[in-house]
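Changelog note: in this version the structure field was regenerated for every chain. One regenerated record is shown below for reference.
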Amino acid sequence: MAVKQLRTALVAVLAAGALALAGCSSTPAPAPTDDTAGGYDPTTATSTPADDMEALVAAAQAEGALTLYTDGTLATQQAWAAEFTAKYGIQVSIVRDSGGPLYQKFAQEEAAGQGQADIFGNIDALSLDDAIDNGWLTEYTPEGGPAFPADRSRAGYYYPYLMGSSHSVIYNTNNVTPEELAEVQENPLKALADPKFKGRIGLCPPQLAMLAAAFWYQYTDGDGASDVGWEGLADIAANVAIITDTATLTQNVIQGEVDFAFPVADSLVGNALKADPNTPIAFVYPSPTVGTQFGMGVVTDSPHPAAARLFAEWASSLEGSDGLAELSGNLNLREGGVDGRAYSELDWFTPVDLDTVVNSAVYTQDEAFRDAAGPDGDFLGHWSQVFGYAG
């Protein structure tokens, strides 16, 4: 069952779903081109020069509507879209689902020539890349696009408008001493292998989510393996009291049932502190870690192509991207963008080094990881044996 969860989360949905629906193998997307030489057309443009922005706004307002497909939190996306509507008078319909099912729906519609989406957004870069390779996302570079990190973008197609979350080690601020915290801050996983933490640690197993599997794989076969490895994980296993999902672990830490838990998304701590700033919870980032970001692109057969391009322009501006960061309580990855995280001004917070955050989608493209975590691999079984996990 655990392996099935891993495969269906992304690999099966994309490889067996989208590509089969397309009826052909993916081909590399062409490099973005400049289409301004023949005159500006707001419905087909690959970029919008400043002198043509009024024409884009007029064409978008004439269309009057657009549809956004997103796996972001519905309330956040609705509030964000309302800001766009307030500025331009263009109504935004939102289709929201979790990443895998959303992409499957989008792929089915596009492959059947029945596209409904104008903008497609997803935290999974692999879905976005697959959509480009199938010709479902078109070339469009908004003015603000180059202000986003190039290594987290596919220039001319999608940009990482928001840092979704990064995995962290969370802890109870009432139960951890300053001396213990100093050790954990220096090297979280290595420190938690110390026997003095016996019975004080909770874990999320790799079987529950692809992102968790990617995190653990970093410390068995990735950049963290030389410092931890299977031997180090065995030492941590001796200190574990609870193995469960991240939402439960967050409550376990808040209630003092365990003092540390990982890997847990930093956003869960943000949510807890947003609900009650006095919640006794904080976190440190291990190095390396894994994370996600929210990317969006303009759909090739968009029913409202001018409105889609205008939305991309607004979303990539400081106004639009800061609005999303503040509404979602996350980090705007745009140069000069705001940090909307509730904990970013707290004394204990140290920002994650983005160079140490591996996009989780990288692992779904890594043949060694897929083999290890797949039905014939031994990664999940080995982890379960080390940690005595039977879930």
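Spot check on this record: The CA atoms of residues 193 and 236 lie 4 Å apart. The two ends are 9 Å apart (CA to CA).
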